[in-house]
Predict the structure.
Amino acid sequence: MINMFEVSETNNMITQEKLDVRTITMGISLLDCIDSSVEKVCENVYNKITTLAKNLVSTGKDIEKEYGIPIVNKRISVTPIALVGSAACKTTDDFVEIAKSLDRAAKEVGVNFLGGYSALVSKGMTKAEELLIRSIPKALAVTERVCSSVNIGSTKTGINMDAVRLMGSIVKEAAEYTKDQDSLGCAKLVVFCNAPDDNPFMAGAFHGVTDAIINVGVNGPGVVMHAISQVRGQNFEVLCETIKKTAFKITRVGQLVAQEASRRLGIPFGIIDLSLAPTPAVGDSVAEILEKIGLEEVGAPGTTAALAMLNDQVKKGGIMASSYVGGLSGAFIPVSEDRNMIEAATNGSLCIEKLEAMTCVCSVGLDMIAIPGDTSAATISGIIADEAAIGMVNQKTTAVRVIPVIGKKVGDTAEFGGLLGYA
């Protein structure tokens, strides 16, 4: 039985502690859109998305209004486009035409991002997959809402070093294509090792094999931070239990929204991704949680241990709350999206080497990190290789989303806007 205290507690989480459902993401299979004609593929893709997702945004708004739970984003993920376009696309421009169709469909249904302009090349690259990868910089420059990802390795298959080398050049090229926007194109491109196919978060979302599914990403750094602040000075057992119980409560909110969205849209419910995903807003920082745990400043000795404990307890709390927990679930460390991480990086206490150590225990990897625009493609490939090696050996998802901001150097500021923040 739910009592009034629990109702009040949930209300406070939403109104004062920034609890929200970060995204309802509809996964859509485009395998039945394959054709030998690029024009026909584009038509099929547009029609399939606009038919299945036509009520996604309005349903999200209705649930938000009815339950009083903020639902920040409504998004779509699709089958990796390297597969969908393999029969028709003979040039990079052919793939760009599909990207434009995806963008038009995303605008038509009202979602803010669409993921799945992707290739899975851990075992090697087909000609179509290579063409898609080489088309990414232009595709991200001529579209607004399309996000791209490339999986270059896995624990089972190892790392495709040819793809690693190529992706260093692709990241640089994407930065050049969008240099008038502080190289924003790179913020919509992520390179994975062990990529999950049920991730609702962008830019790395892509759809697996079912026809359609609803995945939900729920978020609550402010809630966890508030809970930790209530047990300052107590022992580690109390601290861990507090994080775990808080994660449990957050996950139950996510499951409520996911099941309701699934019922109203008539599409199966997939997973809940409980990820502490920060924003630039005050009180919505993962770094601040680590400092509440006891760090002088994020980046100081003990940071990796604190993050490991936080990640572990969040995962355990989520699993206790729901049998549908999946995706990346844990703590994200996107530098430009976390106010306290930005401050730590500015002060010099947080560097890319320390961030790489932290990725051994967090949910993803080196995320939303601005680097000087003159960083070479070879250096970026080296960063990708290092991060992929951590993921492959430790059987975990790792990723790289770095932004070489063309024309900027160390000490300069780049503005990405919205949830993407600044660096």
